[in-house]
Amino acid sequence: MSLPTILVADDDRSIRTVLSQALGRGGYQVRTTGQASTLWQWVEEGEGDLVITDVVMPDENGLDLIPRIRRIRPDLRVVVMSAQSTLMTAVKATQRGAFEYLPKPFDLKEVLAVVARALATPATPVQPLTPPQPDEQMSLIGRSVVMQDIYRIIARLTTSDLTVMINGESGTGKELVARALHEYGRRRTGPFVAINMAAIPRNLIESELFGHERGAFTGATSRVAGRFEQAAGGTLFLDEIGDMPPEAQTRLLRVLQDGEFTTVGGTVPIRANVRIIAATHRDLRQAIRAGTFREDLYYRLNVVPMRLPPLRERVEDIPLLARHFLNENAEGAGSVRVLDDEAMAQLQAYRWPGNVRELENLMRRITALHPQESIGADIIAAELAEASSVAAQGEGGGGAAETLAEAVERHLRRFLSSGQDGMPLSDIYDKVIAEVERPLITMTLAATRGNQIRAAAMLGLNRNTLRKKIRDLDIPVVRGGT
């Protein structure tokens, strides 16, 4: 039985040598060339059991070869390697029919694993897709190993409608990934509709998602299409899915199971023709244990999990990102700002609690406030110190948005520390609960324009309980509500 033959095409002699030696030791026969035309000649003659090709070669782009190879030899698998290491390269390789995409520099063990998997995988008909041609790569920037993994996952998912769950800290680019999955996918001609669960009042989420009929509730003067209808034929992005209230979770689960829904107040089923992409910064497994998120809904949404790494796990991408954001803001500033080596080193040493969004805001601020073209470490140090100070005071700034739990913890720590200076502390529980209840009820009444029935429903309280709390906490009552 003859050994499998691997055809390697790369204009870099050292790459050809390294791959030839590694594959030879792995038990394969290897033929190498620096020309796409030679590779094509071998393929036409029926040579080889697998192709490994570079993208950029002197006579032809390796990506353009893939559809031609697939047409005359559909069983011949093609592995693409590239030093460009961009999302667009991964997408083009996958959608033109490549078996796998390997960014350079690659690990030889990974190459051998990919080759073994490609040769062992039964051949299946693949219809190459024409990849989209956007101007940019959806602002997903980075050549780190973790980002290359993200690119490959996105590329693979563009050929299916599988439901995706994106998990990552605030500012890591979850919506950018969702948009990339849509823009490079089969539904790219349809709409991309996003809804942030954390930004919608709990009692309005079902209406926002599924729409409502005229007269479904007070104020519903006409029929309104929900996000599922608006996204028909396209993608529905459910951001901060961990903040979805239980009753809406139940209804969403039913839609995912049955493939159809009804509007609030409606009776006619409507087909849910959307691809679902969900995202959260929360640990949903912990939420399941706490009883705030349905386990069955989690598994319906978590078909393909994706974890976006925080910026501190991809510090090698910071120079690329910083230069990109500085270039983006150069037009209004008159010239491009340049970071010196010490300034860049400071950026890479910082922890970035706000991730890529915080870095972007910092580069905007530097471009606007500092006229000199060369930005030194002193400017970076001062800006980062200011950002850290603002974040510590709970005022936002360029950092990550502070959660309610973090804000409460920060205030409680300050409150409890006062007892260490000889100040008496007593009835802490009642005092803290009153501090939280008063603004919560006041703001809920403001949101409902004084309507105590709606406010009680939003808060999950009995109306008489709400009235007692209003009285006990001395909350001003807005007249005219019902």
TrEMBL record:
- One Pfam family this chain carries? Sigma54_activat
Q: Which PROSITE patterns match?
A: RESPONSE_REGULATORY (PS50110), SIGMA54_INTERACT_1 (PS00675), SIGMA54_INTERACT_2 (PS00676), SIGMA54_INTERACT_3 (PS00688), SIGMA54_INTERACT_4 (PS50045)
Annotated Sigma-54 factor interaction domain ranges read 140-368
UniProt subcellular location: Cytoplasm
Which GO terms are recorded in the biological process aspect for this UniProt protein?
Answer: regulation of DNA-templated transcription; regulation of nitrogen utilization
Lineage: superkingdom:
Bacteria
Designated name of the protein: DNA-binding transcriptional regulator NtrC
Species in which this protein is naturally found: Komagataeibacter intermedius AF2
* Higher taxonomy: Bacteria, Pseudomonadati, Pseudomonadota, Alphaproteobacteria, Acetobacterales
